[in-house]
Amino acid sequence: MRRPGNVAGPGLLVLLLLLMAVLAGFNPGLAETLKVERANTQLYESPNFGSTPLGTVAAGSDVAVVSRSGDWVQVTYQGKTGWLHKTAFPQAAGGVKMPGLLTGGPVKEAKTDEVALAGKGFTPEVEAGFRQKNPGLNYALVDQVEQFQVNPAQLAAFIREGGLTP
User: Which residues does residue 68 pair with via DSSP β-bridges, in sequence order?
Assistant: First the structure.
C-alpha cells in the first residue's frame, strides 16, 4: 500500500539516481581504453599535428578515451588530456588482425610505412629491383634522409609563425 506523499519507491529512486549520473557523465567502469601501438606517439594539445605537443606516449600504453573528432581521439594519459591521431591505434582504427584463413599460416602484419609505400607501388621487392637496375645511385643518402626526425615543438612553432594551416 502506498502512503500519501510517497511518490517513488526505492527502486525508482535508484533508477533515477543512475540516470542522473549517466547524464552528468559519470560512468564507472564503462570508460573506453585503447592501447597505443606506435612508438614515440605525440600527445597534442588540439586535434591537429601543428598544435603544441604535450609529450610522448610510449607504445603499449593504455589511454582512456574522452572523445573523438574525425581522425583524432582525445585521451587522458598520465594526468594529461590531449589528442592522439587514429594511426596510434591501428587495430582500433579499422585494422584487423586476420587469421591465416587463406594462407594456412600466420599472417605477417605490415608496418604503416610499408603500407603507404605499397599503396604507391614501392614495396621492398620493388626497391630491391630498383637498386639492382640503378647501382650508381647514392642509396646511403636516401637512407639518411629517411632517418631524419623533426622536433614536434619546432614543427608546431614553424606552422604557427608561418601562418600555415595544418
Answer: 73
Looking at CATH, the fold of the domain delimited by 29-97 is given as SH3 type barrels. (2.30.30)
Q: Domain-by-domain residue ranges, the chain?
A: 29-97, 110-145
d(CA 67, CA 46): 12
Asked if residue 72 lies in contact with residue 45, where contact means CB atoms within 8 angstroms, the answer is no
13 pLDDT exceeds 60? no
d(CA 19, CA 11): 12
21 CB neighbour count, 10 Å cutoff:
12
Q: Is 60 helix (H, G, I), strand (E, B) or coil?
A: coil
Per the CB < 8 A criterion, the answer to whether 72 and 41 are in contact is: no
The answer to whether 84 and 57 are in contact (CB under 8 A) is: yes
Reference 77, options 29, 28, 44, 47; nearest CA is 44
pTM of the model: 0.46
